[in-house]
Amino acid sequence: MLDVAAAKTRLTAQLTDLQSRRAGLADTLLEPLSPDLSEQAVELEDDDPLGGQIVVIDREIAATEAALARVDDGTYGECVRCGNDIAPKRLEVQPEAALCIECASQA
Predict the structure, then answer these.
(1) How many CB atoms lie within 10 A of CB 67?
(2) What is the pLDDT of residues 36-62, one digit of tens each?
(3) What's the longest Cα–Cα distance across the chain?
(4) Domain spans in the chain, listed from the N-terminal domain onward
(5) What is the DSSP letter of 19?
């Protein structure tokens, strides 16, 4: 059986963690560059993957926020595409899942 209260607690903790990770990455990207030109090149090269990580985390934040909205509106655990139940085991592994396994495999 699906424990929605536990899912909300887990999603809230996940969201806090993601936001913290994103803030840390953003802070790193805002650090001033070294005055040494060769060091600047290395720093700028390192910034590209950090920017990519922020994009991924932003997607995870959006999915987690959407899952929390489904908790609040009473549709958490229902596939957003077909309306069938999402397996509780799937939600244990991926609490922000919006699709049942069948719809996810078709996507």
Answers:
(1) 24
(2) 666 656 666 665 777 789 999 999 999
(3) 59
(4) 4-76
(5) H
Taking alpha carbons only, the member of 83, 25, 73 closest to residue 49 is 25
Q: In 3-state terms, what secondary structure has residue 34?
A: coil
For residue 36, CA distances in Å to 19, 39, 48, 97 come to: 32, 5, 19, 46
Measured CA angle at 85 (ends 82, 87), to 5 deg: 125
C-alpha–C-alpha distance, residues 105 and 35, integer Å: 50
Give the position of tokens 């959407």.
Answer: 66
- Residue 63 near residue 32, CB atoms below 8 Å: no
Number of Cβ within 10 Å of residue 15's Cβ equals: 18
pLDDT tens digits for range 60-94? 999 999 999 999 999 999 999 999 999 999 999 99
